[in-house]
């Protein structure tokens, strides 16, 4: 049975997902698209050879009985309304981060999903499908390094535009580390603090860059995450877990090495599309496969989206206070307690 997708937001990642569902993954088909920029939606039909209907907005797209599931790949502030409308329409939803831009918005989605009675939503925290992070989690779970004590992470972009703000470093960029780091160690966050090293000359006037975010978990693990969005040299994601008896680190992205002009080196990627290309494929294939197999998606849940939103809110508070801020989560509903493994990790 082919899963028929409607796409809400045909921009950069929306097009990446249209391409992979149409040309690479098994079991999906794009049957509907919409974008507030209608020309963008129209353009996808020819660009990707889609046999799909262009709708004026998410509501009319969701009313299409041939749509089984939607991809919410619009701007973050638009996610909550589209996800709630999809749940109301009893459609499966794959939503790119953030689930919603506020913790309250995430809770509205959690409550709507619980009221519906079964999981419909998967959040696009794709790093949980990245083979490097999966290997880190296996090493930790197998006690290969003993108990994890500390984590050092870095999220480096080559550069960002003038529209990129200091708080985006948290809710748009570091949100990936916020989700994946507590998942790695299976521990809840307790506090967060933000410090600002010397400002990079490449950071625009109104941006504090780089930033160092220090997270502490309930179990006492201390995580230091560097956000550096004008590093110039590449798109570079680092993660090192220091344990009682050893250290495990993300592998460098696979590339040939070279010897030339008295130099020895390897290539560094410049774009997130390439660094996590396999993880994007796996998360969407798992979304389709697990729904077909169990009737529910089993990737990152709306509750994971809530945890990320609460933590990001506290980190943004810490950006402004300079203090160690508490991270206070509501009690996790039993509805989200079912442990699941990716169907095709
Ligand atoms: N998982 C990941 O690694 C990544 C996730 N993202 C997330 O994906 C989302 C989209 O990001 P990009 O594709 O980079 O942005 P983009 O700006 O390239 O595309 C967003 C599209 O959504 C459309 N749009 C905005 N509001 C809409 C609405 N209410 N209804 C329909 N269409 C609407 C815009 O016209 C635009 O075409 C963001 O939430 C972003 O955080 C983006 C890049 C990477
Ligand atoms: O979600 C993303 C991308 O995946 C990159 O990791 C970030 O650097 C970017 O800011 C964000 O939009």
UniProtKB/TrEMBL annotation:
Q: What class of enzyme is it?
A: oxidoreductase
Pathway assigned in UniProt: Polyol metabolism; myo-inositol degradation into acetyl-CoA; acetyl-CoA from myo-inositol: step 1/7
What is the E.C. number?
Answer: 1.1.1.18, 1.1.1.369
In what residue span(s) does the Gfo/Idh/MocA-like oxidoreductase C-terminal domain sit? Answer: 137-323
Q: Where is the Gfo/Idh/MocA-like oxidoreductase N-terminal domain?
A: 3-125
Q: Which UniProt keywords apply?
A: NAD, Oxidoreductase
Domain of life here?
Bacteria
Per its record, the protein catalyses: myo-inositol + NAD(+) = scyllo-inosose + NADH + H(+); 1D-chiro-inositol + NAD(+) = scyllo-inosine + NADH + H(+)
Pfam families the UniProt entry points to: GFO_IDH_MocA, GFO_IDH_MocA_C
Family, per the entry? Belongs to the Gfo/Idh/MocA family.
Its biological purpose is as follows:
Involved in the oxidation of myo-inositol (MI) and D-chiro-inositol (DCI) to 2-keto-myo-inositol (2KMI or 2-inosose) and 1-keto-D-chiro-inositol (1KDCI), respectively.
Quaternary form?
Homotetramer.
The entry's protein name is Inositol 2-dehydrogenase/D-chiro-inositol 3-dehydrogenase
Q: Which organism is it from?
A: Metabacillus endolithicus
């Amino acid at each position: 049975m082919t899963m028929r997708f409607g796409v809400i937001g045909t921009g950069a990642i929306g097009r990446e997902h249209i391409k992979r569902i149409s040309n690479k993954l098994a079991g999906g088909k794009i049957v509907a698209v919409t974008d507030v920029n209608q020309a963008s939606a129209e353009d996808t039909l020819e660009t990707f050879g889609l046999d799909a209907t262009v709708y004026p907005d998410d509501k009319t797209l969701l009313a299409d009985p041939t749509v089984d599931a939607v991809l919410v790949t619009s701007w973050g502030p638009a996610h909550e309304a589209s996800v709630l409308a999809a749940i109301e329409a009893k459609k499966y939803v794959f939503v790119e981060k953030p689930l919603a831009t506020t913790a309250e918005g995430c809770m509205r989605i959690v409550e709507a999903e619980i009221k519906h009675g079964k999981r419909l939503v998967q959040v696009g925290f794709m790093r949980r499908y990245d083979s490097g992070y999966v290997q880190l989690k296996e090493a930790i779970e197998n006690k290969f390094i003993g108990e994890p004590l500390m984590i050092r992470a870095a999220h480096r972009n080559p550069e960002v535009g003038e529209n990129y703000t200091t708080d985006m470093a948290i809710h748009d960029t570091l949100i990936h580390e916020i989700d994946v780091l507590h998942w790695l160690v299976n521990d809840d966050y307790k506090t967060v603090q933000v410090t600002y090293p010397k400002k990079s000359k490449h950071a625009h006037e109104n941006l504090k860059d780089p930033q160092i975010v220090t997270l502490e978990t309930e179990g006492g693990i201390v995580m230091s995450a560097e956000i550096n969005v004008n590093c110039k040299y590449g798109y570079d994601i680092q993660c090192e877990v220091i344990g009682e008896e050893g250290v495990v680190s993300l592998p460098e992205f696979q590339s040939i090495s070279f010897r030339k002009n008295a130099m020895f080196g390897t290539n560094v990627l410049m774009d997130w599309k390439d660094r996590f290309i396999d993880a994007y494929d796996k998360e969407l294939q798992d979304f389709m496969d697990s729904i077909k197999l169990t009737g529910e998606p089993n990737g990152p849940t709306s509750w994971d989206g809530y945890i990320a939103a609460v933590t990001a809110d506290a980190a943004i508070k810490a950006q402004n206070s300079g203090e160690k801020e508490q991270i206070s989560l509501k009690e996790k509903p039993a509805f989200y307690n079912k442990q699941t493994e990716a169907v095709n990790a």
